[in-house]
Specification:
This protein has two domains: 153 residues, Vaccinia Virus protein VP39 (Rossmann fold), CATH 3.40.50.150; 135 residues. 27% of the residues lie in helices and 32% in strands. The chain is built from ten helices and 20 strands. The strands form three sheets. It has a ten-stranded mixed β-sheet, with helices on both faces. A hairpin with a 5-residue loop joins strand 1 and strand 2. It starts with a helix and ends with a strand. It binds S-adenosylmethionine. S-adenosylmethionine (SAM) binds next to strand 2, strand 3, helix 5 and strand 4.
Length: 403
């Protein structure tokens, strides 16, 4: 790259990092100094060759591989998402699961001269590409491995940070056994249809979360893949059910939107929906028949449904009645009220029940959940009190701190 382009790239990179930091401040978050330094140092354009400098610093993901049917299966993640995950934990000996090259280079900067970074991907096209880009950018000492990260990568090695950059549904035993005793696992984990990037700290024989953030990732492939299923409700609206809890009978609510919509206001006011992510998990923990509802734009534009977020709003199904969180009601500049809607024979009660859980969360001090991850064989008596979800390898429990 010529001097002019190098200067331009540095300028665009600094502008992007300034924006990332401003965005985080607006959410009450900071960025660790070593993560900021890494983001200001690594030339992202070298990890997405063929893309213009403006696009390389445009704060969006760049898809690097699609399946034959067009579905995205690999990308260089969006800088805001990368900054979020770098902000969740740092380490010296780091395993990255899911390779794009760029994040591995950032982690290499963060690990420091005595540290190490291994990045693993299931797809040889991705690892070949990552290796090439890392070499072009001078990060020759990042180890790139092609393997299914469901299993141990470098047998016998342990890492103080494992950062997973692909959507996981479970925590396989290898992620636990590869962590040092005080190690941290950062993982976008899908529970009940909602993905959060959790910072999990190893505590004896289990993991406990320190923080979580909303995020979206391409799903894991290989032995750890989990399909989930969509239940069509008709006219472009689906319920999304994941594999850990299947007690929702979508067939009973087919065509439910043809019955009148009941409204219940919660009286709970938020600034620009800032806490919705924690409330989602509260509703999942406290409402039976919980599912996530997804609506196509046509269903929203026609007025059939009016969800708080069309790509995944919390919903609850009881026999032939369906309740969901409606579009937030504007009460003042940048202030919004949570509302619940419901359709079906028991709609008035179901809407009020969801609104009451919104109030209960507010009364509890709008807490964020704590996630505990135990091995699958752990007896109930050894689990903390909370919502327990059984996965393939682990039992995850959501608990709610009171303030
Ligand atoms: C979002 S991309 C990773 C982005 C990357 N960390 C970056 O620098 O931006 C997710 C990657 O996870 C990989 N992946 C999916 N399942 C996997 C598995 N079981 N083991 C290892 N990698 C996997 C995909 O092939 C894909 O390349």
């Amino acid at each position: 790259m010529n001097v002019e382009n190098t200067t331009r790239a540095q300028e665009l990179r600094n502008n992007l990092v300034d924006k990332l930091i401003d965005g985080r401040i607006a959410r009450g978050l900071t960025l660790p100094a070593e993560a900021e330094r890494a983001l200001r140092t690594v030339p992202r354009e070298l990890f997405i060759p063929g893309v213009s400098l403006e696009e390389a610093y445009g704060n969006t993901a760049v898809v690097t591989k699609r399946r034959e049917d067009g579905v995205n299966i690999s990308s260089v993640s969006a800088p805001h998402l990368i900054a979020d995950m770098l902000g969740q934990a740092t380490g010296r000996h780091i395993l990255e699961i899911g390779s794009g090259g760029y994040n591995a280079a950032l982690l290499r900067e963060i690990a420091g001269p005595d540290g190490s970074v291994t990045t693993v991907d299931i797809d040889p096209d991705v690892t070949d590409r990552a290796r090439e880009c890392l070499d072009a950018a001078g990060y020759h000492d990042v180890t790139v491995v092609c393997a299914d990260a469901e299993f141990e990568i470098e047998p016998g090695r342990r890492y103080d940070l494992i950062t997973v950059t692909v959507g996981a549904w479970d925590i396989p035993p290898a992620w636990f056994s590869q962590l040092t005793d005080d190690g941290t696992l950062v993982v976008p984990l899908r529970t009940l249809g909602m993905t959060r990037s959790w910072t999990l700290q190893r505590t004896g024989d289990h993991l406990v979360s320190r923080s979580n953030l909303s995020c979206g990732f391409v799903p894991m492939r290989g032995a750890g893949a989990s399909k989930g299923r969509e239940v069509p409700l008709g006219d472009g609206v689906n319920l999304w059910l994941t594999d850990e809890r299947q007690d929702v009978d979508g067939a009973l609510v087919q065509g439910v939107f043809s019955s009148p919509r009941h409204h219940a206001r919660s009286g709970v006011i938020v600034t620009c929906g800032r806490h919705s992510s924690d409330l989602d998990l509260w509703l999942a923990s406290h409402l039976s028949g919980f599912a996530v509802m997804i609506a196509q734009t046509s269903a929203v534009e026609s007025g059939l449904v009016d969800p708080s977020w069309q790509y995944g709003t919390p919903a609850a199904v009881h026999e032939a009645t369906l309740a969901y969180r409606g579009r937030l009601r504007k009460v003042a500049d940048a202030e919004f009220e949570y509302v619940a809607y419901a359709h079906g024979p028991d709609g008035a009660r179901a809407a009020e029940e969801m609104a009451e859980q919104m109030r209960a969360w507010d009364r509890a001090g709008r807490p964020a959940p704590i996630l505990h991850v135990f091995p699958i064989g752990t007896p109930d008596t050894e689990l903390p009190e909370g919502l327990v979800l059984d996965k393939r390898h682990s039992r995850v429990v959501f608990t709610w701190p009171t303030q």
